[in-house]
Write a structure and sequence with these properties.
Helix 1 (about 5-25) runs antiparallel to helix 2 (about 30-50). The protein is elongated and about 115 Å long. The longest helix has 25 residues, at about 50-75. Among the domains are: about 1-80, Four Helix Bundle (Hemerythrin (Met), subunit A); about 130-165. It is built from ten helices and no strands. It is an all-alpha fold.
């Protein structure tokens, strides 16, 4: 067994353990943390399989954004664990049946396909290209038009979502920048002369020096 195979089995064992603990953990925060561990191990396995693009996307998108958001949501929610446990054994037969079906389907796919011997051989003298570079070449050559269409649709959707959720608050204290630029000193403060409303108090009588001593 070489080093690469050893790391593959190591990451796979940790991945299976973390996935099992995601389902069996009683604390939701612990379940989210185990799910993050499972994603990191899956990313490491993809690195070993020379799928560095998928591995980096998994780390940046899921571990860096989605799972952190899940963790904050779970920690901020007041989850009653005792209430969640009610009805577990009632729904367990259906969950076990669905899990067994999914496991059998995955076993059938993995045992019948994805053989290394079926992979196309590299031509003699060809320069090896990593999958990230190959994917970039395909996206910006053959699939340039679909990428541009998809980007335009996403941009329109983002602008529409912002426009639909934008509401002007009546109690907002925001000031237009153009008004601030055009302001004058006379508009800021105005001095108004007002007459005295009451007489000034009379000065206190002077105390003789002899009395002070």
């Amino acid at each position: 067994m070489d080093v690469k195979t050893g790391f593959f089995y190591l990451f796979s064992v940790v991945l299976l353990f973390a996935a099992f603990r995601v389902v069996t953990a009683r604390n939701p925060v612990h379940a989210v943390l185990f799910l993050m561990l499972a994603f990191s191990q899956a990313s490491a396995v993809w690195f070993l399989l020379n799928a560095e693009f998928l591995a980096i996307v998994l780390v940046l998108v899921y571990l860096g954004a989605v799972m952190v958001l899940f963790l904050f949501v779970v920690m901020m929610l007041d989850i009653n664990i005792d209430t969640m446990r009610k009805g577990f054994w009632k729904n367990f037969p259906l969950a076990a049946t669905l899990g067994a079906i999914v496991a059998l389907e995955m076993a059938a796919v993995l045992l019948s396909g994805f053989r290394v011997s079926d992979a196309p051989a590299m031509a003699a003298g060809a320069i090896p290209v990593d999958n990230s570079k190959a994917l970039g070449i395909l996206l910006y050559t053959e699939y340039l038009m679909p990428i541009q269409i998809a980007a335009s649709i996403l941009l329109v959707a983002m602008i529409a979502a912002i426009a639909l959720t934008l509401r002007e608050r009546k109690d907002s204290k925001a000031i237009d920048a153009s008004i601030q630029v055009k302001v004058r000193a006379a508009d800021r403060m105005q001095v108004v002369k007002m007459g005295a409303t009451q007489q000034a108090p009379e000065p206190a009588p002077a105390v003789p020096v002899e009395q002070i001593k």
